[in-house]
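To: structure desk
From: M.T.
Subject: fold request, one chain
Message: Could you run this one when you get a chance? Sequence is below, nothing fancy, just the single chain.
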Amino acid sequence: MTSTANPPKPRPKHLDLMKIRLPLPGWVSILHRVSGAGLFLFLPVLLKLLDMSLGQANSYETVVQAMSHWWVKVIMAGLIWAYLHHFCAGIRFLLLDMHKGITLPAARAGAAAVFWVSLPLTALVVWRLLF
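Reply: Done. Structure tokens follow.
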């Protein structure tokens, strides 16, 4: 017999994503996917820039001139962050696959470590390469 004293709560039909409080490991996971997709989508552009820079002298000058624009530097900084975040989060996920750091405090610390490592590394690499 089913009890009607405590009926189950109705599931929401439309989730309001702005009201959901996602924990830090969830943000790391989502940003890992977003950074991987961004790197994949920009790969043809980066390969074309590499091809042009290794070509003739005038195409190299074109790449250097394009890289001097502020918006290209912002895009490149974003791609550098995407690569470093994806790399650091990938190491974290490999450790999780080996059952290292799967407790809740360790998972939160590992997620925080991804940000604490990838953001300063991004600042260092961007400063050294783009300025």
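Reply (cont.): The chain has four helices and no strands. Let me know if you need anything else for the meeting.
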